[in-house]
Every structure is written in C-alpha cells, then in structure tokens.
C-alpha cells in the first residue's frame, strides 16, 4: 500500500492558519499576562503578588475554593449515583430520556439559570411559599442570593456534567464481575470496596477536577444571582477590569494569574488521572 | 441471573429529574402569569409579558447581534479546525497530543481570565480588535475549540481515511477536490454536531461579551441580565426563549448523533 506522500512544506502551510490563531489568541495572551504580572518597569518583581494579600482578596479565594470544592464534590457524588442508575436501568425510555436531560441541562447556566432559581427559591419564590405552608420559613436563614444559594445553582449545571463524564466509566463496570462476586458469596459492600470503587475511582477523581475548574471559572450565574454581594475571584477580577471599585489592572493580572495556576494544577491532575484510567481500562 | 436493583434508584432518578425540571418549568409558568409572588399557584395567566418583551426594538437588535456573532464564530471555527484536524490526522499524527492539549486548555480557562489577557495584549496594538466584534469572535473560537475539535476528530478517527483519499486520488482528484468532495461529506456528522455545540455555547455566553465589547455592542445574554434587574416577568420570557434555543440545538445534536450511530450500525451489519 502506498503511503501518503509527505510534503513537509505543504503540510506546514496547511497548519499555519490554525497555529497562528492559537498562538495569537490562546498562547500569547496567557504568556503575556503571566509576564506582566511578575514584571514592573522591566524588572522582575513579586510586589504585585504581595499586594494581593489583602483580606478581601484572600476572602475571595477562600470563597471560590469552598464553592468549587463543595459543588465539585457533591456534583461528582450525586452525578455518580444518577449515572449508575441510568446505566443499570433496563428501560430504554428511562435510559435515553435521562441521558438527554443531562445533555441539555449541562449546557444551561448563566443569567437564565440564576433567574430560574430566583423564581423558585427567591424570597417570594413558589418553593419558599410552599415550604412556608408547611410551617418552615426559609428566609432569612437561607438566601438564594448568598453563597449557599449559589452552591445550589452551581449544582444545577455541575451534576449533569458529572453524569456525562461518568457514564462511560459506569458502562465499564461489567455485570459479570458483580455476578462473579455474588456467586463467590461476597456481600454488596465487599464488592464495591474491592471491585467497584477501585475501577471507577480514577474517573471519579478526573471528573472532580474538571468540575472544580468549571465552578471556579463560572461568572455569569454568580453575577446575575448575587451581583457583587458574594466575594468570588472571577467577580473581583471583573470589577477590577471594569474599574468599578478601583482601577487597578496590575492587581487584576495577579488575580488572573493565581487562578490560572489553580486551573493548571487541576488540568494536569485531570489529564494524568484520565490517562491512568484509560491505561487500566 | 436477575439481580434485585438497589432500593435507592427510584428516589435518585426522581430527585434528579425534579431538580432539573422545576426551575425551568417555574420560569415558563412565571413568564405567563399575571402575578406569582403571593400564592402557591399563579393568580391568572397572560401572554402580555411575551408580547411586551418582543415589542422592544432592542430585543430584535440584541437577538440579531447574538445570531450573527454565533454564525461567524461557527464559520471561523470550521475554517480553522476542520482542515487542521484532517491534515494532522492524515499527515502529522505526531502532532495530535499538542492539538488535544490546546483544545482542552480553553475548558479550564475562566472567561474573565481570557478577557483580561486579550485586553492586556491587544489594547495598545493598532489593529481593529479591542472593543470590536472581531476580538469577541476570536475569543469565542478559542473557548469553543474543544466543542469543535472533539466531534470532528472522533468522526475522522472512525473513518478509513486512507482508502478514501487513495480511491479519490486514483480517480484523478487533486488534494483540494479530495478534501472538499470526499472527506467533508464523510465527516459531515461530526462537523454538524461540532457547529451546533459551538453555536449554543456562544449564543448564551455573557462574560466575554460583557468585558470585551459590552459598552459598544449588546448581545442577547447582556440584554437578558439587564432585564433581570428591570422587569422580572419580561426577563422570565427572555430566559425561556434563551432556554428554548439552546434546548432545540442540543436536541438536534443528540438526534444527529443517534442517526449517525444507527447508520454506521447498518453499514457494519448489513
């Protein structure tokens, strides 16, 4: 069989547009941002980073980390149960409708989602009213415009994303293994601890990291639901860029680079775990 | 052997379906009720909010802005990604890991971070970029790279590209003819899913639009966010519209994917 003729020059020309675009709009902007955050008047400095150690910024990172960790953990866990229920379902209808539902809702987010939660759980939302009929007053103990409300809204797009990411791994749990464990007299918990969980663990962890990134970078939902009431990193960066509080581009750069660092760690963990789980599959 | 399924399946499935449907259903109901903040069920129904929100000239302007920006993003993404994916797959498979990495990075690149790095780099460059739709479209193509790259590469990998191109070249076609008339029709399913995914992601995007061009050009999501502060009922009609557009697009992606699966099953088991 004749191999393709390799014409290095023609291939290079063909790849040039994409390479130029990616360098211009993905690689260079990010590198430039990192560079400008650690230089001042041409010399390397970490002044900007030490300036970032204000209570308000530390608080923003704490809130963003908490919100992302919580919604990534709960989203992965809840998503794992739903994904398992979908995969083991014997009804064609349940399987397909629920998978489609996860597909659709994973794309929802931003302003319409925030707004939907205000209608359902705002101070005059119908679920708030429904619960008050049962004698429980949600407000002022719980507010949808708070970080707890945000966590609930984030779970709305985190859970379906987890389901989509985890369904392939759940398909990988072969029914024969469970049957073999049953035949050999193993209990359900013995099967899960020794077979089930070790098999899906890498997929669960990589899903967790991707969900963490997803929550950490989310802006529109938080912005619509809480304005700048809840102190989060993306909200702080947005405010600094627009010059709402004070115009301090250097500080915005530092916040952006710090979030990039967190994202890079998650991305590396995600990639590593993914290749590990593929290796074992 | 017929195992008994775990007891928690029904509650888990039911709670998930409820959690996913209630907020959307509530928005829909809210958009057609006269008043729904004192009672458990809307006091009465009306289509007034829908008519009212559509009567603003800004409604069609912003909808149009979002539509043409989304179309141009899809077009640019197709021009950049499809030939590159084809060339890399057939001629330079060694470069695939790079491509994979470049197209997963935007997934973890927060919108605010991309916006600020683009502003920093291009604000002093004398090119028609900052505060124009050009920079927004470029940013959109960047963040949606994974959505276009994955489906296109998946369909490419599922084909026997070598035989296809060889057959075409034996019949006297040049490289361009082979790509345009043989390869493209064979990967059209991946190209369509990718385009629809990009379109729905871009159509609902708020952060980049707000930070990059928000003062000059209003897109539909920016208009929607403004309305959530002005008039809740009209905002709910807008939200429903936004949900519906994304919903229709996602269902068509699923439909195309399912049809493709059936078609390939028929081919392999005649």
Tell me about this structure.
- The complex is a heterodimer of chains A (281) and B (270).
- By secondary structure, chain A is mainly alpha-helical.
- In chain A, 77% of the residues lie in helices and 1% in strands.
- Chain A has helices at residues 8-38, 47-51, 55-88, 92-105, 110-121, 126-133, 147-171, 175-183, 188-217, 220-226, 233-242, 249-280, and strands spanning 39-40, 43-44.
- Chain B has helices spanning 9-31, 48-55, 57-91, 96-104, 111-122, 133-143, 145-158, 161-170, 175-186, 188-203, 207-212, 220-230, 232-268.
- Chain B has 13 helices and no strands.
- In chain B, helix 7 runs antiparallel to helix 10.
- Chain B folds into 2 domains: 1-46, no CATH class; 53-268, MetI-like fold.
- Chains A and B meet through helix 1, helix 3, helix 4, helix 5 and helix 6 of A and helix 1, helix 3, helix 4, helix 5 and helix 6 of B.
Q: Could you provide a short overview of the structure?
A:
The complex is a heterodimer of chains A (281) and B (270). Chain A has helices at residues 8-38, 47-51, 55-88, 92-105, 110-121, 126-133, 147-171, 175-183, 188-217, 220-226, 233-242, 249-280, and strands at residues 39-40, 43-44.
CATH topology of the largest domain in chain B: MetI-like fold
CATH fold-type name of chain A = MetI-like fold
CATH architecture group name of chain A: Orthogonal Bundle
> What are the segments of chain A in which pLDDT stays under 50 over at least 5 consecutive residues?
none
How many strands in all of chain A?
A: 2
H/I helix tally of chain A: 12
**Amino- and carboxy-terminal Cα gap of chain B:** 32 Å
Q: What would you call the shape of chain B?
A: globular
Element pattern of chain A in H and E: HEEHHHHHHHHHHH
